[in-house]
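hi support,

uploading two proteins for the ticket. first:
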Amino acid sequence: MSKLQAPAGALQDRLKALTPARLKGMRRGIEKESLRAQPGGGLALTPHPAALGSALTHPTITTDFSESQVELVTGAHKNPEDTLRELTQLHQFTYSTMKALGDEMLWVSSMPCGLPTDETIPIARFGSSNVGRAKSVYRMGLSHRYGRRMQTISGIHYNWSLPDVTSEQYFALIRNFRRQAFLLLYLFGASPAVCSTFVEGRQHALQTLSDSTMYMPHGTSLRMGRLGYQSDAQASLAVSYNSLDGYGASLQDALTRPYPAYEAVGIRNPGGDYNQLATTLLQIENEFYGTIRPKRVIRPGERPLHALRDRGVEYIEVRLMDLDPFEPVGINAQTMRFLDVFLLHCLLGDSPNDTPQEIAEIKHNQHQTAARGREPGLKLKRGGQEVTLTNWGAEVLAQCAPIAAALDAVHGGTQYSDTLTAASAALLDPSTLPSARVLAAMAGEHGNSFVRFARAQSLKTQALLQGLPLGADELAHFAALTQASIEEQKKIEASDTLPFEEYRQRYVSADRLGMPGHEAVAI
């Protein structure tokens, strides 16, 4: 047994087992989604700019669900500043390209800009290759299953790893993260309001703030609440995080279980166009919505579940962070430092197996915090009891203090401890939280209009990023990546030999999920 698996209450011993070399080996990277918006605050309906390269093959600039949704991806870095530097440069290059093509901007809020009718929102296109077509068909499936509006919600994913952590330890981290994720929603949620076009024709519990804006007075992250990435179908999933085997079995069930509502949609429509990749509860692994995921870099053509089963967890992906509209690139170094401390705390703390009762409590706490997190005296559920959000949050922050001190000792300075001090102050003064600041700015400067607020912040960010100098070397680097990605897409398209239907059937085959005792089938 490693010291990281020491008996209960031994967090300090586990912390001491983390050598300075391992702590310095911590890596983090970011994936950031942003809608392209028109100057007036409506969704841009233009194609992904060709000057940004191929969305299929570019390693750092791609699209997410929509052709109008840019996704910027950094590498894994040894400190928050280097991560922020790369993310900023990606924004600079993207903006310099967009400026040459017109006056579009990147929307700085997680909740979308003014949206057209659902069917008008353009689905991302990835070219004529089988893999490119499969990506678009998967997104078409999402549009049939959940509607296109939900898919335009944007966020930041924080990819994090530490050397010499086993799959078992990563799953222990994930269980603790899910238990305490309410604190991240409270501290960093920045989506308390939405444009009324987002909820048009949908049932919701939002209150009217103005003619064009709906909100929750004490909301923190509507993106992570009942209006966000939620689905009745997925609510039936009982995914286990107690082991890689259990997690794999849960996902395999969802990926192979026929779902009547999706069977009714069918693989193709009467005209022969594809509606979705499969009629199972999940088309592919990425359709499973969670606040955190175990991840492993996949090989070409490999299914993510097979990669996990074959080689174990390589890093984790935190998926609940809103874009901060007050930060030029949606996040700052202090927030990254908090995430580093928080994730280490989740790794080092005792992590009993989850139970159906606890999973229900976690879901309840997520929805409560998302919709009512800043409500004075708000209570959450923990082990069958009620506890106030602020008291529980204070407990977590106190437990994080020695971890922050250890990181400060390794890196020099007091930046990690300062981050905790700021979080403790914010816990006690909700008016300083991003979600409260959004509502205050909307009320004070924008007539309680969400779109007017987010548009003004987007324009301010656009001017700032376009005004930052991008060196000749960086420009040449990005230009080379653009050209290489275009050439790579052409090669992929030229090398395809399988008819698409055969490719699709092979890709969604259960034989490719890496079942124990089975070799995954190649395509």
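and the second one:
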Amino acid sequence: MHIVGFDPGGENAFGWAVLSGTGHDLSLVASGTCTGAPAALSAARAATSIAPIAFGTDAPLFWVQAGDRKADETVRKMVCAAGGKSGTVSHVNSLRGACLVQGVLVTRLAAELCPSAMITEAHPKALLAASLAARDFASRIVRPVSTKHERDAALAAYTAFALATQTDGWHDLAATEQSPFFPGGTRVAYWFPKSRT
């Protein structure tokens, strides 16, 4: 099984990663950085001949009509309980354009390319604060990746793997929102651990 993760950013700062395997055997197939959603998706697809079963993107993939997203409030509380800072989980209105726009674009392109693939929003930095298993995974892939953008893309793919396998102890935070808006044109999940481990 192959899973792809993205960490949208600006010029030469758009991370992508492809993971393969099952359970604890999950490994990094390839990763890199580039500029823009089309280049990231193209590079990830070139790294594997197998169609991905899931995609994860480190960017807000759904919005709410007013106020803060319940998902962000939940994750922010978990990060703070782990000793992190509330600013780790920013309000959607305070994020950089590259993260917002490129995240939606790469998700839309991925959904068009692989319509049967599952898609989830991911938050690698918050995941590292909340999940021992994610920290263990990140420590295993630190040497093969050369940038934090690639690491965060790999963690986004790790989140997509949790969605694809319906990992115990995780849930869909997007399901907690009332009338979310999906700017990419397709419904996505926000798979995240239910509690800090």
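thanks. also noticed: DSSP finds six helices and seven strands in the chain.
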